[in-house]
Amino acid sequence: MRSGASDPADIKIPDRLNMAEWFLDRRLEEGLGDKTAIYYHGSGPGDPAREVSYAQLVAESCKVTNLLRELGLGIEDRVLILLPDTPAFAACYFGVLRAGCVAVPANTWLKAKDYAYYLEYARPKAVIVDAEIWPAVDEARKTEGRHTKHYIVHDRSYAATPEGTVDIARACAKLPSVAETEPTYRDDVSTWLSSSGSTGNPKCVVHMHHDFVWNTIAYAQRTLKLGPDDLTLSAPKLFFGYALASNMLFPFSVGGSCVLLPHRVKPAEYYELLERYGATQFVTVPTTISKMVAAAESKGAAEGRDLSKLHSLISAGEALPPRVYRAWRDRFEAEIYDGIGSAEMFHVYITNRPGDVKEGSLGKLVEGYDYELIGDDGQPVAQGEIGTLVIRGGSAGLCYWRMRDKSRETFHGDAVVGGDKFMVDADGYFWYCGRGDDMLKCSGVYVSPVEVENALIGHPAVREAGVVGVRDADGLEKTMAFVELGPGHAGSEALAAEIIAHCRELIAAFKAPRKIEFVTDLPRTETGKIRRAALRELARGGA
Question: Average pLDDT of the chain?
C-alpha cells in the first residue's frame, strides 16, 4: 500500500468516546456556549429563521436523550431519523448518540415503499420524523412496522401531532435539559450511513464513534484547516454523510457555525444565501456549481452579491469538469477543493486542498490514508495506468448491515475495495476515470467515460454530458453521448458532427463518441451523479 505523508498512528482517539461530547460538549468547556452553532434559515411564517447557540443545542440534545430513555430506549437501539435540515435534526442526532443509541439518518425525499424497506432493514426501535414526511411513514408502518415501538413526530409549526405518535416538542418541553452521556467506547457503533447507489435499495454502512472523529481530524482540521471563524452552508442535505460531516460535524469540531436550509434551493438562489449569512465555505457538488455558473452568466444571478467572505467550495460526488472549474474561478475568487469519499470510508480521503489544486484532478491522498490501484487480475498496476482503488484508513466502516457476501468483498480490516477506477500521475495526483461497471473497452483499451465527458463539455454549446457504451452492428463497444445543450443552442445533425469533431481533436479518435443524442435533462441521482444505468437503457433503445 502507498501512503500519505503522515503515520495514521499520529491521530490519537481516546478509548472512551461519545461523539456528542467530542463534537458538542467540549465547545462549552472551551467557553463557546454563547456562540451561534446553527443559523437556521426557516421555511416560512410557521417555521421562522433563528439562531441556536452551542449551549442551547447541547440542552436540546439532552432533552432528546431523556425522551428516548423515558420511552425505554438504550444503548445500541437503532433510531431512524427522517428530518429535514433543521435545528431539530442536530438535536436529535446528538441526542440519539448521547443516549448510546445508533443513529440511522435516511433520505427525506423517498416514498412509502422506501420507508417500509428501512423499517424492515434497519429494524429501528424508534423513528423520529418530520410532520411533512409522516404520511409516507404512516403508510409504510402498516406493512413493515412490527419492529418499531415509537413514532416521534416533529411539527415545525408546533401543531398537534397525529394520534398514536409522540409529539417531540411537547414531550421535550417537560424534560430536563441535562442528561448523563452514555460512556460509549470508540468502537461502539454510532451511525449507519446509507450508500448513494443509483439502483436498488440502499446499503447501510455500519460506523463507530471512532470513524467520524478520525476523519474529522485528518481531513477537516488538518487538510482543509477549518477554524472557529468558519461558517459553512451546504447544497446536499444532512441525511447524506457528505453533508452530515461537512455542514455539521466539521464546523462543530472547531467551534465554527453552519447554516441549515430545510427546503430545496434553486442554484441561482445560493448567491443570495451565501451573501446573507457570510458563509466562508460552500459544500456542494459539480452539478450545482455548473448550474450556478450558468445562472450567473445567463441571468445575472451573482450581480451585486458580496461573496468576499467565501474562501472555498468543497466539491464531491463526481469529478468536477475542468471547464466548470475554470468558469467558476474566472468569475469568483473562492477556490474549489474537489475530492472524493464514500459512505464506506465515511467521508473524503482524496482531495485538492488549500495551496495545492490541480485542475481536473481529485488532488492527493489525505494524510493518514494509504492506497493501492489494482488491475482486473488483482495485481498492482503500473504508475499512470488505470486501476481499481483500494483505500485504507481509520475511518473505514465495519460492514454493510445484513449483507455478508458484499461486506466481505468490500471491507478488509481498515481497507475498502471500491468500484471506482483511477489513474495516479507522476506527481501523486488522482484522476477519476469512472465506476468499474461504467468503464468502456473500445479497441481493446479501457476508456474512461469521464475523460470523454470532459472533452464534450469543452465545446461551447455543451452544458452537461453523459457517456455510455453501446454495441455496434459487429458487436463492438463504442461510445455514445447524451448531451444537454446550453442556452441559445438547438440540437441538430450538424451540431452533433461538430461536437464529435471537437472531441476527436482532444482525445484519441477511438474514444470519441460515435453518436450523440440531445436531451433536455440528464437522469441523475439525488446526490447529483449521472444515472448511467438509465442512460444505458436509453442507448439500447436508440442504438
Answer: 92
